[in-house]
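Q: Predict the bound structure with calcium ion.
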Amino acid sequence: MKKLLTIVLATALLVSLFAVASHAEDTNLALGRNVETAISEGNANLALGFWDKNYLTDGLVPVFAEGEPNQDRLGWYAGSPTQDTYITVSIDLGVEATISKVVLLGQKFLDGNNVPNTFDVNLSTDAQNWTKIGGEVEREGPCESLTYETSMDARYLLITITKMPNIADATNYYCGFGEIEVYGTAKGDAVPETTYSGKNIGNGAAIGVWLQGDNHSATLEFTTAGGFKGFGLPIYWASNANVPNGPFANYKIELFKFAYNPEYTLSQAPVKSYELNGQGDDNPKFTFEFDEALEAGTYIARFTITNFDEILTGKMNGQGDDVDMTPYLVLPKMDANPDPAKFVFSTADAFNFYVVGEDGIENFFLANPDNTDSPSQPTTGENPPETQPQTGDAAVAMIAVLAVLTMGAAVVFAKKRSF
Ligand SMILES: [Ca+2]
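A: Predicted complex:
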């Protein structure tokens, strides 16, 4: 009996030691994880210098005061035109864990408290069913930190903010945090955070695709093996009214999710669309980044000059007689043409392109799928299908080539002059 009691006591001691040990293993599982933010109306992430949502999990908890270190990464802020709002801040810890506490660290901004006035802190194992573990209601005034203890198992954190504090300027109410910490004991290894970096389809080498007048649009079809969260042009040349070699070009850059065939795809609404007022070569430089990555798949990017019929009358490059000039956009071609099974261009020359793609995938770009028939071919729509030149248009195409060569010479001449 005495022996049994000893065993029971020893076991109890071991269990309590284990409990202490596992408690000691509590780590900040949010450290280094991606943060997603969204807002009903306003700016969910004032990504300006000191502020970015990813500074919420960078392990730095600076305060906005003289002489403090790490003044360059203060934390995250959102701006809402109204005090009532709906903002979500979410983190995937990458692994299910027994959570012990969530700690929200404040970061002063403007002239007072940055912390949201009213919010809930929620946890979930599946990002679908949420359990509230804490929060604040009608809270005002500065704070160092707020701690919410729990013992539940979870993988996902969701903070839902419904009211901004009394911190405002002429346009917005503001709230934010310096750091979010989620302490717990992981039940395994966290899945690696998905990171994205630039993948060039090619460099810009020489004059390639010249968009001007009737020829005011060009497309590129490509297929990715992983998600991507941005695209752009590393280099391009555009008309400049100050040279002058044409009115400033306004252009639209659209991304379409492929369905059936290019014609059908381009008759649908784009998944991303941006409009720019060009100011000449590489101006503005652009790579469009999305908050959430687009899924892997086949896409068509289309570049279109929108003010293609605008006319500027003047001496081209300051030389000769007055002529009528129209805006142009040149998409520089590559040194070596890429694999035609992977990259299908609407133009004779392949032009450079850039995708911010998911890392860790050996062959990020795949061969494009075969075209198939769509259930019904639309003949009109918001974006009428672009027509491809037919063989019978060879004479017209030759004139166009000659015109482009002439314009190319003019641009080369203009560039030499500007150096
Ligand atoms: Ca931080």
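A: The chain has two domains: 25-186, 196-418.
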